[in-house]
Each structure stands twice: as structure tokens, then as C-alpha cells.
Design a protein that fits this description.
Rossmann fold; 2 domains; single chain; alpha/beta; Quinone Oxidoreductase, Chain A, domain 1; 9 helices; 30% strand; 7-stranded mixed sheet
Length: 301
């Protein structure tokens, strides 16, 4: 099969599209003919060597396509599914555990479906599980124009919260179109000095930004970060808490999110839809940290 493979860790230049042995599904797994795969910052970190991958490796986690073989009673050949790949998603064929995939509903494209798993599920768990967001509360989404952030802002709006989104000024119109009640240009304003009543602060940016978000928390609020060490002591001093979210795959969440997309309540922003052969460009873009929404790779059989 054709696949985006790296034989050594490093920058995007180590990726190459080549013929690679197709995976075989094990017990409880399925084999997917891949139609689309999305790219996440995590993929770039793995390729860069942060998590010591087993080499050679096929890049990617998020997969959408059609089943050609199933070792699970829950799925059959011909089913259109999306979820997390266990063999690498950026390839003509990929395996996945049946427990971490979901059926694609009518009205959802393969590209949209591939954009959901990592980013959408992470945002859902940050907002509703770790953040325990409820109607009438205030949610501050830091990095609201990005892959995870643009989902999170819409989920918070769906949950009935007052929403505040941060991004650069060039993304103001986009963030407001997602349902932000208030927009903050982080290049012009210190978020921690602008907001002081957020019940949920969701940090998708990390670095020096994270600690500066504590003053934005309301009493009893929570700062959820996916991008660095949570400032637990500072949050506790404010009468709040801070935690690092390590999201876990959930097929149930995939189904919930897909239903919101099909209904039109949530939209998926795909900034780039590239052929598999441009996988290096996709990784360069994701590493820039300036991507709006999601980057998707198309796999044409």
C-alpha cells in the first residue's frame, strides 16, 4: 500500500510517501480503506521523537474510511467509519480497534469525519468532563481558532455557557462566527488581566501563557490545559484548581460530535485539504502553530 512513512525521527523532511506493507487486523480490530486522515500537533511530536516511536512508522491517528475487513461483531465490511487508527492513518489502509471507531452518519464527509477524533474528543472532554461546564457558566477558550480550540468554543456554546475566545486579531471574525460572546486579541491584551470570572479556562496554547491564565479564574473555577504543566499551586491560592488533560479515545463522543456537525450546530473548519503526497507540507503547517481549524490529508485509491 501507499503510506506516509518515516524511518527515523526528525523534522517533516523525514516523511516520505512510499510502498509499505499493509497492516492486518487482529482480534477485535477492523481494516479500513482510508479516505481521509487529519494531522494533529501530537503527530508532529511523535515524528520528532518525543515519544520514542517504533520505526519505521506510518504517521497519523485520525482516520475515516470504509471497512474492508472486520474482526468485530459490531462492524461489517462496507461500513463507513471514523476514529483512531492503531497502525497509522496516513495510508491507503489502516487498522483500528473496534471500540475506538464509530459509524459515520449520513451527511458527514470523510474529511469532516477525519477531523474529529483527536481534536474533537479532546475538546469535549476538556469542556464537559474535566471542565464540568454547565448552562449559565463562563468558558474562556485560549487558542479558539485552532484545531482543538474551535471545537471547544462551539461545545461550550452548545452547553449554554457564556463564551470568550482568544486568538490573534486576524481570526476575530472567525472566532466570533463560532459563537464567541467576547473576543480577546492576545497580541494586544493580557488575558489574565482582561478576564476574572471564568468558571472554565481551557488552555490549548501552553508555554508562558498557562501560568498567566490563573487570574482569569473565578472562585471554584478550573483551568484545564493540554499544553503543559498545570499551575496547581497558583490556582489553589485563588480558590480554584488546575489540571492537565490527557484525553482518552471515546467512540461515544465521536457519535455525539458527529450528530452536532450533521445538525449544523457545530461546524468543522478545514483550513487545508491536501493529497497524501503533501504530507510534509501538512506537518510544516501544523508545527507553525498558526493553523486555523484542521488540516486533512486525502487518500485517493
Amino acid at each position: 500500500m501507499k503510506a506516509a512513512v518515516y524511518h527515523e525521527t526528525g523534522g517533516p523532511e523525514v516523511l516520505r510517501v512510499e510502498e509499505f506493507e499493509a497492516p492486518a487486523p487482529g482480534d477485535g480490530e477492523v481494516l479500513v480503506e482510508v479516505r481521509a486522515a487529519s494531522v494533529n500537533p501530537y503527530d508532529a511530536k511523535v515524528r520528532g521523537g518525543k515519544y520514542d516511536p517504533s520505526l519505521p512508522a506510518v504517521t497519523g491517528n485520525d482516520v475515516a474510511g470504509t471497512l474492508v475487513e472486520s474482526n468485530s461483531p459490531d462492524f461489517s465490511a462496507g461500513d463507513e467509519v471514523f476514529g483512531w487508527s492503531s497502525s497509522g492513518a496516513a495510508a491507503e489502509f489502516a487498522t483500528a480497534a473496534a471500540e475506538v471507531i464509530a459509524p459515520m452518519p449520513a451527511g458527514l464527509s470523510f474529511e469532516q469525519a477525519a477531523a474529529i477524533p483527536v481534536a474533537g474528543n479532546t475538546a469535549w472532554q476538556a469542556v464537559f468532563d474535566s471542565g464540568e461546564l454547565k448552562e449559565g457558566l463562563t468558558a474562556l477558550i485560549v487558542g479558539a481558532s485552532g484545531g482543538v480550540g474551535h471545537f471547544a468554543l462551539q461545545f461550550a456554546k452548545h452547553g449554554g455557557a457564556r463564551t470568550i475566545g482568544t486568538a490573534s486579531g486576524r481570526n476575530r471574525e472567525f472566532v466570533e462566527s463560532l459563537g464567541a460572546d467576547e473576543f480577546i486579541d492576545y497580541t494586544e491584551s493580557d488575558v489574565g488581566e482582561t478576564v476574572d470570572d471564568a468558571d472554565l479556562v481551557f488552555d490549548t496554547v501552553g508555554g508562558d501563557i498557562t501560568a498567566g491564565l490563573v487570574p482569569a479564574l473565578a472562585q471554584g473555577g478550573v483551568l484545564v490545559t493540554i499544553a503543559g504543566d498545570p499551575p496547581e499551586a497558583a490556582a489553589e491560592q485563588r480558590g480554584a484548581r488546575a489540571e492537565l488533560l490527557v484525553a482518552s479515545p471515546s467512540a461515544a463522543n465521536l457519535t455525539r460530535i458527529a450528530e452536532l456537525v450533521v445538525s449544523g450546530e457545530v461546524r468543522i473548519e478545514i483550513s487545508e485539504s491536501l493529497p497524501l503526497e503533501e504530507v510534509r507540507k501538512a506537518h510544516e503547517l501544523i508545527e507553525s502553530g498558526r493553523t486555523r481549524g484542521k488540516i486533512v490529508l486525502r487518500i485517493d485509491s
